[in-house]
Design goal:
Strand content: 15-25%
Number of domains: 1
Largest sheet: 11 strands, mixed
Number of strands: 11
CATH topology: archaeoglobus fulgidus dsm 4304 fold
Order of helices and strands: HEEEEEHEHHEHHHEEEEHHHH
CATH class: Alpha Beta
Shape: globular
CATH architecture: 2-Layer Sandwich
Distance between the termini: 26 Å
Number of helices: 11
Structural class: alpha+beta
Length: 380
């Protein structure tokens, strides 16, 4: 009886927290929805670092025709097994290119092919568990960026969409002390630079979509400007509450889910520079915005390097193209090329089991004995 009571109390507590969070979230959603076309982020003081030329908080996005366009996407799949004295990973990346000609069925090309055999990578480096996680992430992203480069070397798409960031999202401070991991990171940075320069050479729009972003970059910026916004009549409700801890709780997509309508984006803003250690190499500006492509799906975070000095409003061009190939389901707003690339890149769990069985049989171990102790507890 006490166990049931404890469970009920725990569930009730969780429900209370969620309800309170949703109440606060709705307050800010309603406030920003009222002023989403009137609020001009380009007029905010430079100290708040909004860094945008867009003159409204939310921008409407017209859909582009896909006729005559080549649009492409890259995604990867990975299965990792951590054994007693080595780690092994199966990694696959697939590029997909769709081409629409008037009155014809879409043509599809795959890079390197429709169902490529996965790479099998192994490491016997004496790495801690968090370092292993970094290594697997580095291997996976390297494979995806090589696939993107291969696609550009063999065709000329109008747009190339990565599943994920256009930056190597790795906590560099955590791996700087490990020479092996840091060398892998620098190799990845070089691949990204190659991808940027090749995209510019081919006049290809390059961007990345983060489908489940947990970022709070936008809400952090808004928290700084709110004292100024509270002077506006639309924000007078904020004067009656301590809004600072509330806005700090909100992730960007939580705020924007009911602020953005379908085929709308947030203002374009500067995200970061590409260079960290490369003093003598060309640097790139990375920009971002959020885009709603499906009525009941959370907004996508879209990042892109600014590669063309002669292009105007890259954000509007990229968002228009993404909307045109992402509005096929009201609850799932990913670009069609990313959906197809994801389906082709997936690796089955039992493929890794077969590989481990084959390795163990050839080195004279049972696959059971190669597993770590927590995976072979006979009483669990």
């Amino acid at each position: 009886m006490s166990e049931k009571k404890n469970l009920e109390q725990a569930i009730s507590k969780i429900i209370k927290v969620i309800k309170e969070y949703n109440k606060h979230r709705k307050l800010f959603q309603d406030l920003f929805r009222k002023v989403k076309y009137q609020l001009n982020p380009s007029s905010f003081p430079e100290a708040f670092q909004f860094n945008t030329k867009d003159t409204s908080f939310i921008v409407r996005v017209p859909q582009s025709s896909t006729t005559g366009l080549k649009y492409s996407g890259v995604d990867g799949g990975i299965i990792h097994r951590s054994m007693n004295f080595f780690d092994v990973a199966l990694i696959r990346a697939v590029g997909v290119l769709f081409y629409h000609n008037k009155d014809e069925k879409p043509k599809v090309k795959y890079f390197p092919e429709k169902n490529p055999f996965p790479d099998i990578l192994t490491s016997v480096e004496p790495l801690a568990q968090n370092e292993i996680d970094y290594l697997i992430a580095l291997w996976r992203i390297q494979k995806e960026i090589r696939c993107a480069i291969n696609l550009l070397e063999n065709d000329s798409p109008d747009i190339l969409i990565l599943d994920g960031s256009v930056l190597p999202v790795i906590d560099v401070k955590s791996i700087q002390g490990n020479e092996f991991l840091f060398s892998q990171y620098l190799r990845l940075k070089a691949l990204y630079r190659r991808l940027y320069t090749l995209s510019r050479k081919k006049r290809c729009l390059l961007c990345g979509v983060i489908k489940d972003s947990r970022s709070a970059i936008l809400t952090r910026k808004l928290s700084l400007i709110l004292p100024h916004l509270s002077k506006r009549p639309e924000f007078k409700e904020l004067l009656n509450i301590d809004y600072r801890p509330i806005i700090k709780q909100l992730r960007d997509t939580d705020l924007l889910f009911n602020v953005l309508d379908i085929n709308e984006r947030t203002f374009e803003s500067h995200l970061s520079k590409f260079n960290e250690y490369e003093k003598d190499l060309e640097d790139f500006d990375i920009h971002f915005f959020y885009l709603k492509t499906a009525e009941y799906d959370t907004p996508l975070r879209v990042e892109f390097p600014v590669l063309f000095s002669d292009s105007t409003n890259l954000a509007q061009t990229i968002s228009s193209l993404i909307c045109s190939i992402s509005t096929f389901h009201p609850e799932y707003g990913l670009p069609s090329v990313i959906i197809e690339a994801d389906a082709r890149a997936k690796i089955r769990e039992d493929d890794a089991d077969i590989l481990i069985d084959e390795i163990s049989s050839r080195i004279g171990y049972s696959s059971f004995s190669l597993q770590k102790r927590r995976a072979r507890n006979p009483w669990s």
